Amino acid sequence: MSLLDKVVPTASAVAGTAPGLARVAAGAAWHTAGWGLRTSSRAGFRVARAVVDQDVRDGLVRETAEAVGIVAGTAARIIRSGSNPVMELSVSDYETAGHDVVLARTRETEASEDSLPVLRRRGADLLDRSRDVWADEQGHPAYARILDELAPDEARMLLYLLQAGPQPSVDIRTGGPTGLVGSTMIAPGLNMIAGRSGVRYPERVPAYLNNLFRLGLVWFSKEPLPDPLEYQVLEAQPDVLDALRSVKFAKIVRRSVHLTPFGEAFGRTTLVDEGSAESAYPEHQAPVTGGADLPKA
Fold first, then answer.
1. CA separation for the pair 26, 20 (Å, rounded)
2. How many angstroms from the chain centroid is the CA of residue 162?
3. Alpha-carbon torsion, ordered 273, 279, 285, 289, to 10 deg
4. Contact 266, 158 (CB under 8 A)
5. How far is 202 from 180, CA to CA, in rounded Å?
6. Torsion 112-118-122-125 (CA) sign
7. Has this prediction a pTM greater than 0.90?
8. Tell me, what DSSP letter sits at residue 89?
9. Which of 165, 149, 16, 148 is nearest to 82 (CA)?
10. How many C-beta atoms surround the C-beta of residue 151 within 10 A?
11. pLDDT for residue 108
12. How far apart are CA 60 and CA 47, in angstroms?
């Protein structure tokens, strides 16, 4: 008897086991659907990585071979079980076996992706691509990840900074005779970006700016903007006046908020249409050493 005859059931065997097979198929579909949805995004990422990474490709080949083995073993057990395959084969057995194999291989592959040989090979691949004069890199590879880490309000703030230019910011500190010896911060980084950009949650703007700073999109200059009129409007805002009135002596330190060169390129690439990407936008200062301070939330 050939191997095909051992694995593939005859027509009569299939007819006899059809009700049981239907129950197995339905149960397997129900129980494995959730697991499939949970792992589909990771599997898609690994398939994309397999195109360029030999280790990932080898791992996928091994998992595919093992999955074929599980299916073949399942078919053999169903044939041996006769007319009631459900008593012989448990859906949970199949699901658990397949899940354990794939999970183990996934962890093994992910661990190997952080190994020094793999990192060095990826670095060498980057250098090879840098020497390819025919390569046409569209945007920075970090742009997609950054979009996933931005709140909608933060996107509005970035677009406003791109279109309107640098924004005034003030710190309120203690002044008077006490301020000559040691000045204490009362309210840092007050600005009008929330109102001017139309964010939905203006109270979250300090946290938004912290995140944009973390992502390398904005920076906070110790230097004021050239136009003093920008500060006259800001210093008349209620939050600034409240901070000034909170102590007997207070002083205003003028600063400014800018996009980084990376933030400008990100905004042109992802936040405006193709026709506006090359338009002339207001100029931002480039960060200087010691000039960027993260405002407190």
1. 10
2. 22
3. 60
4. yes
5. 34
6. negative
7. no
8. -
9. 16
10. 16
11. 56
12. 8
- Closest CA relative to residue 291, chosen from 257, 265, 261: 257
CA distance 202 to 288: 29
Strands 218-221 and 250-259 turn out to be: antiparallel
Token code pair at residue 97 = 């076996």
Amino acid at 131: R
Q: Cα separations (Å) of 65 from 29, 96, 297?
A: 21, 17, 53
| Spatial CA neighbour of 7 closest among 78, 67, 63, 64 | 78
User: In whole angstroms, how far apart are CA 109 and each of 222, 236, 250?
Assistant: 47, 59, 59
- Cβ–Cβ < 8 Å for 292, 262: no
How far, in whole angstroms, is CA 95 from its chain's centroid?
A: 31
pLDDT tens, per residue, the chain with 297 residues: 544 454 444 444 444 544 554 454 545 555 555 545 455 545 555 555 655 566 656 666 666 656 556 555 655 555 555 545 444 445 455 455 555 555 555 555 555 666 888 888 888 887 887 787 776 667 788 999 999 999 999 999 999 999 999 999 999 999 876 556 678 999 999 999 999 999 999 999 999 999 999 999 999 999 999 999 999 999 999 999 999 999 988 999 999 999 999 999 999 999 998 888 778 899 998 887 654 554 444
Alpha carbon 141 to its chain centroid, in Å, reads 12
Contact between 41 and 83 under an 8 Å Cβ cutoff? The reply is: no
- Tell me, what's the pLDDT at 72? 57
Output DSSP code: residue 81. Answer: T
Q: Which residues pair with 256 in a beta bridge?
A: 168, 221
3-state helix, strand, coil in the chain (%, to 5): 60, 10, 30
Closest CA to 160 of 188, 189, 223, 202: 202
